[in-house]
Structures are given as structure tokens and as C-alpha cells.
Amino acid sequence: MMPIFTLEDVSLCYGTTRVLRNANLTLAKERITCIIGPSGSGKSTLLRSLNRMNDLIPGFYCCGKILFEDENIYDNGTEVHHLRQKVGMVFQKPCIFPKSVYDNVLFGVRHLPCTKKSEFPMIVEDTLKAVSLWSEVEDKLHCSALELSQGQQQRLTIARALCVKPKVLLLDEPTSSLDPKSAHAIEELVKQLSSQLTIIMVTHKLDQAKNIADDVVFVCDGQICGSTQAPKDQGLNKSYAWFEVPDLVAA
């Protein structure tokens, strides 16, 4: 398995508070990795560090190296907007702009100089089909995206992220605010997309991780306590027997 991200002795801090400390981890290319652990353990901070979204939070800094395709993304001179084009992100609640469905999909593409305006309609159709949303919104393309259901809005945000053709998609609990039917639709979409790009996803739902993940990372008390790529003596393996541990289930 080829690595796409490598963390080398990484600590993530807000001011004097270390949220994640001394993390060493390899995340494999073109696989689904789920990050699990108790609330407040540093999962989302870890996820956001992979495309430098934490930079927007006052007092944040990163020690150590986070390598994306063998380049340290925290080096001086890193073009963060280019990084975020390659490493997209979707949040817990749908982040919908007060624009039409059509304009939401194209929001990032409009800023790419290599894309012709004449290609926009086909880009919208192809991307919405990729997230199984086209048949539901093809007659609502120029209506406000705020009129869509929450499940549709979340698929729309994924479509918007996919539109700029990222190599990695970061998902921060993307089904936490959805009903079971909509959550299942997102899970099936994630499995479909994994053949095209790398997906790294934070989830509190152990059954969800067990269902969709190729690899799992367990974060607790600001430390990476193990992963499916870790040595067996750390207690994690592909059998997922560790899902039955009461303390983890309760968390």
C-alpha cells in the first residue's frame, strides 16, 4: 500500500494546550480510513491538520512533519489553496452557500483557470450523478440549495468538493446530523468514491467504521493509541474484535 500522508512526531497545539501529541502515523492511498475515539480526544483536530484548516483558528501551531505525497505541508512556502484543492473537506453539518444548486456545485471550479465556462453544465451533471443526486435535483438546479433536505445538502457539499478533482476527501462526521436513511446513502457513496480517491473520515459510530473502513485509527486522550496498520501487540487488527471492548463501545 502506498502512503499518501505520513505523520512524523506530530503535536498539534492551541496556545499552550497540546490536543494531539507525538503522533506517528501512515495513511494509505486510495483507501477508506476511519478515525474513531471519545469526544475531545483530538480526532477532528487531526483531520483538519491534513489540509491546514486549523490555521484559521487563533493560536494553533503544528510541531513535527505532516507529509503529503512526500512533501511537508507545514513547510514555509506551501501554497495552502493548492493543498486544499487536492485535499477537500466536508463537515458535520452541510455547509451550503445561499446560492442555487448549480452555483454551489461550481463554486470552486469557477476559480480554476483551466476550466471553460462552456463545460460547466456537463461538470454539474456529471458531479451530481457521481453523488447520486442528479435525478433528485435536475429540475431544481437554479433553485436555492437551502430548499434541499439535509441529506441532499450533504451530498451536494460532497459534490462541490469533488468538482475540483481532489486526491483526498476529508469527512468530519458527515452523517452525525442525518436521519438513518440519509446516513446510509452517504455511507454507500463513500464506498463508491473510494475507488477514485483517498477518504479519511472521523466517526463516532463504530458500526459505521466497521462497515465502510479499510483501515481504522483509534485516538484517545490526545494520542494515537493504535491503528489497523500498527503492530498486532497494540491490540488492533482487521478482525475488528476490538470493537467489542466495553470501554471503546461506551466511548
CATH fold title: Rossmann fold
Envelope shape: globular
* CATH H-tier superfamily: P-loop containing nucleotide triphosphate hydrolases
**Regions with little confidence, pLDDT below 50 for 5+ residues:** 230-251
CATH architectural arrangement: 3-Layer(aba) Sandwich
**What's the total count of β strands?**
10
How far the N terminus sits from the C terminus, by CA atoms, comes to 30 Å
Strand pairing plus helix content: what structural class? alpha/beta
Spatially, the strands of the biggest sheet line up as 6-7-8-3-9-10
Strand content: 25-35%
Determine Rg (CA atoms, Å): 18 Å
Main sheet specs:
6 strands, mixed
Number of helices: 9
Overall domain count? 1
Protein described:
- By secondary structure, the chain is α/β, with parallel strands linked by helices.
- It has one domain: Rossmann fold (3-Layer(aba) Sandwich), CATH 3.40.50.
- 29% of the residues lie in helices and 26% in strands.
- The strands form 2 sheets. A 6-stranded mixed beta sheet has the order 6-7-8-3-9-10, with helices on both faces.
- Helix 6 runs parallel beside helix 7.
- The chain starts with a strand and ends with a helix.
- Residues 230-251 have low confidence and may be disordered.
